[in-house]
């Protein structure tokens, strides 16, 4: 009875539940009020939390626990908090069957428990974004097998916690730790991560990585893309062995790229770095590379053939760098595609492939606008070729059998090339220039001058007129030139090497008062030389021997020629060169009395020039030179008079000043301190035994009489010696006996004019320690330095002559 009643009640309860909730009779919990729960078989739970103290375990956990497993296939849970409010989540066991989990902007409190996702979980996607990193350290994903995408972003992680990387990554195709503060990567990360699925991505963008550990290479990892953009990487040699298909290194601090080892299809993006040079090793192995983006770096130089062998390359982006040239040797010759090379915004001086006459051996669609092009004769070929092509209509149909492409297919943005120099052509469109009869020269054209090459004569006219120049320019364009320097402020004409290839020189209207005689032989190629209206009073006489042929025109009027003897030759010279010197018959000169003559009238008799003057001048000059030499020698001898005397004595036995030295028992008494004994031994040995003349020396430890008081011994030694030699070192002044010896000798010398005192300086002396008289000796410099070259000569010279 009671059984029947209870079964009845159960039936009634079940029915009432069913009627209350509609579909599922077993659903005990309802969707939390903060969330919306949609879908039938694939339920989507979305929670927008704006209250604190939300408990994920009790609210969402118990709700999904109440759902049957089928409803959780393709289920997703999406929790978004407001302002990082605190939510609690301490038990994940009910999330077993959830497939996608996404939590953003929350501060999750696990109340001390570690959330371990077991291998039985079926979760595919996890995204934790802007979650407290304390929480990330409390989760363990090691055993998850089903994960295909894991992103932990904006969580302020400084390292990647090991427990968040699943042991088995075979299904993982996206692993992202972007926008954290990661500064180091552990080796284990690369060891563990084996990406087997296609197109997997490892993303460390927007972190603080400065380097990639070299151990990354120990177990080479294959993944499709490696994104490390926007870090602080300066050295990625640790990446060279990684096998990735797309490596994104944008916005780091790279100065160099490593030699990549991977040979598979690959794209390298390294724009916005600080790379200066592209080395040959970098891309040597990247034969399958399809694209390289190195824009926005500081590339100045590409090693030859740096891209050679990259046959699969379709896109090479080098724009926004500092390249000055780009030649065929810099291009990926051999590429099998219509490779596009971007070079805009570099420092290119000329359009690419200049050295191959702008004709690369294959089709490189090249973009090179916005470069500071020099529009000189060099680009004439390109301009002419492009014009030629434009004139020939392209055949509407027909086989493409041309061996090389049309240049318009190569220089695809040629219309945008603008000139940056010469000044006159700035901002002009390069391809529209008319270089049919003349073209500018820029290289070596003197500053502010205009250089134009005339194609019919191949002579470059250098127009430097009216530029206020005071000197001849140092450099000129190559090959034949004609120089117009008229109306400047030149004061002289000096020798310049380019004069030899100068076919015309106009220096009229300057202030030239002197010509360097050396320029005359350099003027062999001039067709005209215009020296009018200067301050010339004479021509270098080297003109006298130069016969200009009658094709040369020389203009000399408007100068202040002097009617002087040195100019007499001009009269005849003008006569002989009357075809060359255009205005020769007009030339006039002034004499000292301001009288005007023509050069025809000039002759030696009028001027009373005599050849005596010249010979007298030569004699005077010769005498002058001799006098100067004698004077110089005397000065040297005087300056080194002491050394001269020493050397004359020791080498030639000649003494200029004979000194009267009384014949004494000893030639010299040497006073020294104990520390210099070794040196003194050498001296004594040399003077007594090694020289042809044998000297007699007295030293205290050998020659003093034993038993006599020292002071008496010293006075006696001093009296018996012609010379007293003091070996003065720092020890000398410290020795009382040495000072005594010096004082005694000094006093004796003052009274008897004997003995002679000689000082040998040993090593660097602290002069302040010396006694006053000794210091006075040093100040007068009358000492012999042990280290000087003629030490022995000086020493012997100081001893009495034998
Ligand atoms: C929380 O959201 C509810 C409804 O969305 C709103 O009425 C309430 O004002 C919000 N509270 C706060 C503190 O923002
Ligand atoms: C889950 O989603 C996938 C594709 O998103 C679909 O192919 C599959 O049928 C779905 N499963 C269920 C049970 O709805
Ligand atoms: C989590 O919840 C499950 C089922 O509700 C329970 O069996 C388990 O003991 C809980 N775990 C913890 C650590 O509280
Ligand atoms: C990360 O750190 C920044 C500044 O230190 C802080 O403003 C932000 O709230 C932190 N984010 C998280 C998720 O802890
Ligand atoms: C880059 O780092 C590796 C190892 O850390 C080192 O051997 C190499 O010299 C570094 N290269 C540069 C350019 O500093
Ligand atoms: C180019 O200049 C030459 C003379 O300098 C002139 O004869 C010719 O017509 C010009 N060509 C064009 C296309 O302007
Ligand atoms: C000479 O040069 C000056 C400036 O240096 C200029 O003002 C003057 O016009 C020039 N004269 C001639 C004839 O070119
Ligand atoms: C040299 O320059 C002046 C001034 O520019 C000019 O009058 C003269 O004809 C020129 N001389 C020659 C030979 O061209
Ligand atoms: C130069 O002048 C000489 C003599 O006057 C003459 O014989 C010769 O043909 C001339 N040469 C040229 C190239 O005019
Ligand atoms: C040059 O001189 C010769 C003879 O000395 C004379 O016959 C000739 O007319 C002169 N030519 C010129 C251009 O003055
Ligand atoms: C010559 O003439 C100049 C000016 O033309 C003058 O300065 C100078 O004093 C004159 N010399 C003599 C000797 O008359």
Write a structural description.
- With 802 residues, the chain is an alpha/beta fold.
- The strands form nine sheets. Strands 1-2-4-6-9-11-12-13-14-15-16-18-20-21-22 form a 15-stranded mixed beta sheet, with no helix packed on it.
- It binds 2-acetamido-2-deoxy-beta-D-glucopyranose (NAG) (11 copies).
- One 2-acetamido-2-deoxy-beta-D-glucopyranose binds next to loops.
Task: Describe the secondary structure blueprint for this structure.
Blueprint: H1 2-21, E1 35-38, E2 44-49, E3 54-55, H2 56-65, E4 76-81, E5 86-88, E6 100-104, E7 107-109, E8 115-116, E9 125-129, H3 133-136, E10 139-140, E11 149-153, E12 174-176, H4 187-192, E13 201-203, E14 222-227, E15 243-248, E16 266-269, E17 277-278, E18 289-293, E19 301-302, E20 315-317, E21 340-342, E22 365-367, E23 373-374, H5 380-391, H6 407-410, E24 419-421, E25 438-441, E26 450-454, E27 459-463, E28 481-484, E29 492-493, E30 502-506, E31 514-515, E32 528-530, E33 553-555, H7 568-576, E34 588-590, E35 596-598, H8 604-607, H9 611-639, H10 641-652, E36 666-671, H11 677-690, E37 697-699, H12 700-703, H13 710-720, E38 721-728, H14 730-734, H15 736-752, E39 756-761, H16 772-779, E40 784-785, H17 791-798
Parallel strand pairs: 2-4, 3-5, 4-6, 5-7, 6-9, 8-10, 9-11, 11-12, 12-13, 13-14, 14-15, 15-16, 16-18, 17-19, 18-20, 20-21, 21-22, 23-24, 27-28, 28-30, 29-31, 30-32, 32-33, 36-37, 36-38, 38-39, 39-40
Antiparallel strand pairs: 1-2, 25-26, 26-27, 34-35
The structure holds 2-acetamido-2-deoxy-beta-D-glucopyranose (11 copies).
One 2-acetamido-2-deoxy-beta-D-glucopyranose (NAG) is lined by residues 130-132, 155-156.
């Amino acid at each position: 009875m009671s059984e029947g009643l209870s079964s009845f009640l159960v039936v009634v309860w079940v029915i009432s539940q069913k009627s209350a909730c509609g579909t599922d009779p077993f659903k005990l919990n309802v969707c939390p009020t903060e969330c919306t729960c949609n879908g039938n078989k694939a339920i989507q739970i979305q929670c927008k939390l704006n209250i604190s103290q939300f408990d994920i375990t009790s609210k969402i956990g118990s709700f999904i626990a109440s759902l049957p497993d089928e409803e959780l296939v393709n289920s997703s849970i999406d929790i978004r908090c407001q302002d990082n409010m605190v939510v609690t989540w301490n038990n994940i066991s009910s999330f077993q069957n959830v497939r996608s989990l996404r939590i953003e902007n929350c501060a999750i409190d696990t109340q001390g428990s570690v959330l371990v996702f077991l291998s039985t979980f079926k979760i595919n996607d996890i995204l934790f974004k802007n979650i407290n990193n304390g929480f990330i350290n409390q989760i363990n994903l090691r055993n998850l097998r089903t994960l295909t995408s894991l992103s932990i972003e904006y969580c302020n992680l400084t390292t990647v916690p090991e427990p968040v990387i699943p042991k088995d990554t075979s299904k993982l195709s996206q692993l992202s730790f972007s926008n954290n503060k990661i500064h180091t990567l552990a080796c284990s990360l690369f060891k563990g991560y084996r990406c087997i699925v296609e197109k997997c991505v490892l993303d460390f963008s927007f972190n603080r990585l400065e380097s990639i550990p070299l151990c990354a290479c120990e177990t080479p990892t294959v993944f499709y893309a490696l994104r490390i953009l926007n870090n602080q990487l300066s050295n990625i040699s640790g990446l060279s062995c990684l096998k990735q298909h797309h490596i994104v290194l944008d916005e780091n601090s790279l100065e160099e790229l490593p030699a990549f080892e991977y040979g598979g299809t690959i794209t390298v993006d390294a724009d916005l770095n600080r790379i200066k040079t592209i080395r040959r090793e970098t891309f040597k192995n990247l034969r399958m590379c399809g694209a390289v983006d190195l824009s926005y770096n500081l590339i100045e130089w590409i090693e030859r053939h740096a891209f050679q062998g990259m046959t699969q390359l379709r896109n090479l982006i080098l724009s926004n760098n500092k390249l000055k040239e780009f030649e065929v040797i810099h291009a990926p010759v051999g590429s099998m595609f219509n490779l596009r090379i971007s070079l805009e915004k570099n420092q290119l001086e000329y359009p690419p492939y200049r050295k191959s006459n702008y004709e690369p051996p294959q089709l490189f669609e090249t973009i090179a606008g916005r470069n500071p092009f020099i529009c000189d004769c060099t680009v004439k070929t390109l301009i002419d070729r492009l014009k030629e092509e434009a004139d020939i209509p392209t055949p509407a149909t027909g086989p493409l059998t041309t061996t090389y492409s049309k240049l318009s297919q190569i220089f695809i943005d040629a219309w945008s090339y603008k000139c940056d120099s010469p000044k006159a052509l700035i901002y002009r469109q390069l391809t529209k220039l008319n270089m049919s009869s003349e073209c500018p020269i820029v290289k070596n054209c003197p500053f502010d001058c205009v250089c134009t090459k005339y194609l019919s004569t191949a002579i470059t006219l250098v127009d430097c007129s009216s530029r206020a120049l005071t000197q001849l320019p140092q450099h000129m364009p190559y090959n034949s030139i004609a120089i117009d320097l008229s109306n400047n402020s030149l004061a002289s004409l000096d020798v310049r090497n380019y004069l030899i290839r100068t076919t015309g020189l106009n220096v009229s209207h300057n202030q030239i008062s002197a010509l360097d005689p050396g320029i005359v032989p350099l003027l062999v190629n001039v067709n005209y030389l215009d020296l009018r209206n200067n301050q010339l009073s004479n021509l270098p006489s080297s003109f006298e021997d130069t016969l200009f042929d009658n094709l040369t025109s020389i203009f000399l009027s408007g100068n202040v020629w002097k009617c002087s003897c040195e100019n007499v030759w001009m009269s005849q010279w003008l006569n002989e060169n009357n075809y060359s010197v255009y205005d020769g018959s007009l030339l006039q000169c002034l004499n000292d009395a301001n009288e005007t003559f023509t050069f025809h009238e000039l002759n030696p008799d009028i001027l009373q020039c005599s050849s005596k003057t010249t010979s007298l001048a030569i004699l005077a000059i010769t005498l002058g030179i001799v006098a100067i030499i004698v004077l110089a020698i005397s000065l040297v001898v005087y300056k080194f008079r002491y050394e001269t005397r020493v050397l004359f004595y020791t080498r030639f036995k000649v003494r200029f000043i004979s000194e009267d030295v009384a014949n004494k028992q000893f030639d010299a008494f040497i006073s020294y301190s104990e520390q210099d004994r070794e040196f003194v031994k050498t001296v004594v040995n040399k003077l007594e035994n090694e020289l042809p003349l044998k000297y007699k020396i007295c030293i205290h430890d050998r020659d003093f009489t034993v038993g006599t008081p020292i002071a008496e011994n010293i006075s006696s030694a001093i009296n018996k010696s012609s010379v007293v030699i003091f070996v003065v070192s720092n020890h000398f002044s410290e020795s009382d006996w040495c000072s005594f010896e010096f004082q005694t000798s000094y006093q004796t010398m003052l009274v008897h004019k004997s003995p002679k005192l000689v000082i040998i300086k040993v090593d660097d002396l602290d002069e302040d320690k010396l006694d006053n008289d000794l210091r006075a000796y040093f100040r007068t410099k009358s000492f012999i330095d042990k280290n000087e070259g003629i030490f022995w000569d000086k020493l012997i010279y100081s001893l009495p002559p034998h």
